[in-house]
């Protein structure tokens, strides 16, 4: 029924995101810092509706556009919001369904050579990792470069550094030292396959242990 200036407003049936619009409007009126979380199933728009004819295939698309337009009008274009879609895990898991098909078993084995599904991108994995580590999804995610590898710094003070990039030769011990020296994260998350070899991975463990930094492998 009422909010304080720093509250988070949740609408579990957000429709066209009228609640988000209202939150931004109220913030503009009382210089508040309220945030909003909108949840909506991607219900298909009626093909005869004006929204469908305008190119919006489902209600979520209408809601996102309303937030953009309201932000541009009320907050003069300074609208920061993220959109997440519920999906299966980005990580490959062993399919234990009983089968006598040899070819199918070989296919399952080949899939396990990579821990990340081939149709997923870095940010898919980054946000899943954040969820599994209990990191709020509104924490900043900043792309950084460590030697020739792309990585992602989570949080303003690099709470976690996530590196999924092989670079030219794979992650080396020198790369791990650079990550520690330049960003001083509390934890480093990396794909096990991204390391140059087993020696580089073993050395990384010793380097991080000496610096009291935890490492999680995907």
Write structural notes for this entry.
This protein has 218 residues and is α/β, with parallel strands linked by helices. The protein is 36% helix and 15% strand. It contains 7 helices and 7 strands; from the N terminus they run βαβααααβββαβαβ. Helix 6 packs parallel to helix 7. The mean pLDDT is 89.
Radius of gyration: 22 Å
Largest sheet: 5 strands, mixed
Strand order of the largest sheet: 3-4-5-6-7
Number of continuous helical runs: 7
Strand residues, percent: 5-15%
Outline:
With 218 residues, the protein is of the alpha/beta class.
Show the helix and strand layout.
Elements: E1 8-11, H1 18-30, E2 35-38, H2 50-53, H3 59-74, H4 102-111, H5 122-133, E3 141-146, E4 149-154, E5 160-163, H6 173-183, E6 187-190, H7 198-210, E7 214-217
Parallel strand pairs: 1-2, 5-6, 6-7
Antiparallel strand pairs: 3-4, 4-5
List keywords for this structure.
218 residues, alpha/beta, 2 domains, 5-stranded mixed beta sheet
């Amino acid at each position: 029924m009422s909010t304080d200036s720093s509250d988070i407003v949740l609408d579990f049936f957000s429709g066209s995101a009228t609640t988000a619009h209202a939150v931004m409007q109220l913030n503009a009126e009382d210089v508040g810092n309220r945030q909003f979380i909108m949840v909506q199933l991607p219900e298909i728009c009626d093909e005869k509706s004006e929204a469908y004819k305008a190119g919006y295939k489902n209600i979520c698309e209408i809601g996102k556009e309303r937030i953009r337009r309201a932000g541009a009008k009320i907050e003069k274009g300074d609208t920061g919001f993220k959109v997440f879609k519920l999906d299966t895990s980005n990580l490959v898991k062993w399919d234990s369904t009983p089968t006598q098909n040899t070819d199918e078993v070989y296919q399952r084995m080949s899939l396990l050579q990579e821990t990340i599904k081939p149709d997923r991108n870095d940010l898919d994995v980054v946000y899943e990792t954040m969820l599994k580590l209990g990191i709020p999804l509104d924490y900043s995610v900043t792309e950084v470069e460590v030697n020739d590898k792309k990585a992602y710094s989570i949080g303003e003070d690099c709470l976690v550094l996530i590196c999924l990039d092989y670079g030219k030769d794979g992650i080396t011990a020198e790369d791990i030292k650079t990550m520690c020296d330049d960003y001083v994260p509390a934890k480093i998350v990396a794909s096990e396959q991204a390391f140059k070899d087993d020696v580089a991975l073993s050395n990384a463990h010793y380097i991080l242990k000496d610096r009291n930094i935890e490492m999680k492998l995907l």
